[in-house]
Amino acid sequence: QVQLVESGGDLVQAGGSLKLSCATSGIIFxxxxxxxxxxxxGKQRVLLATITSTGSTNVADSVKGRFTISRDSAKNTVFLQxxxxxxxxxxxxxxxxxxxxFVSWGQGTQVTVSS
Length: 115
Description:
Blueprint: E1 3-7, E2 11-13, E3 18-25, E4 34-39, E5 46-51, E6 57-59, E7 67-72, E8 77-82, E9 91-97, E10 109-114
Parallel strand pairs: 2-10
Antiparallel strand pairs: 1-3, 3-8, 4-5, 4-9, 5-6, 7-8, 9-10
């Protein structure tokens, strides 16, 4: 059974940092590219960062220089280090494989950045 469990979200002040984790099970983690997504109420999920099975990364322009994606294949976990957080980073953060290979979405983790 596929399971994605995101954690690490919190309420932080602008300029602060958070590190999100996504523990996966039921997928061949080491063979899959993974991504972090953000969803704001009433809007579609937006892809923020990707990491390939070999560790190559890419981040959206909106978070470039502030967010870093990484993975630990031994722990089947993908991370998102978020620095210099801004109020516009507020949302629910999810991990998943990349389109069109999505699996069942987890519950996400809420990040709220206060000004």
